[in-house]
Amino acid sequence: MNNILKVLLAAVLLSTLACKEESLFDAQACLNRVDENVQADVLACLNGVQNLNSPEANAIKCSILLTAGGITTARMVNAFKQQDSGSESSMMTDFSFNKYPTPTENKTKATEARDICKLSGEKGLIGISSFSSIGTLLCKGALTCSNASPAAVNTLLDDCATLNNCSQADKDEIGETVIVMNEVYCSGANTESTECQTLSSALVGLTDAQLADPAIVADTVLLFWKGQQ
After folding, report:
1. 101-131, pLDDT tens digit by residue?
2. How many other β-carbons are positioned within 10 Å of the β-carbon of residue 84?
3. What is the pTM of this model?
4. What is the three-class DSSP state of 82?
5. Left if phi > 0, otherwise alpha if psi is -120 to 50, otherwise beta: which for 48?
6. CA quadruple 73, 142, 226, 110: dihedral positive or negative?
7. Which one of 135, 176, 178, 189 is most buried, counting C-beta atoms within 10 A?
8. With contact defined as beta carbons under 8 Å apart, do 160 and 114 qualify?
């Protein structure tokens, strides 16, 4: 399968001068050959790398966990189309996890993937996993939350901003994820990307102390994204 995640992953591995862990390449080969829609087969690719903690290993684990959560080629293509149309929050709902049996598990697994992806140090993977985590929280872990209309996305944003079927913990998690995006993903060349320009516009005017406060950051971005619909 021609998964965008695999392209990012290949770039990570090709940038490594020498890799002594044959299991890394075995895991990549596994991900290359499995059906991305069969979760059990995708997760089986973790065998051999689960306990490794190098940036390269975490990049592979990140890609596997995102794919297992339902970030398939078709959904990613649709998400980037949403980005091209200027709807960042709609793009995030298209990145939401939907392959696990319960909303709670989808939210937990999306957060787990985000944390592993951050450890990879790869900005592309950090960006995708951050959008995925935020989208899953906005969707409340729903098994079906894609192709949402602007009105539907506005409702999701408002529900989370007002703690209507969205816990304070979930809201703070969104703030924490945005902080990671702002500090790690939206740096260097990425500052000129559409999503980072949008994030910069949302956070402009906040003090350093406010930018470090998940609750304030969440309130700020949820209101800004709602105004973009």
Report:
1. 999 999 999 999 999 999 999 998 999 999 8
2. 10
3. 0.85
4. helix
5. left
6. negative
7. 135
8. no
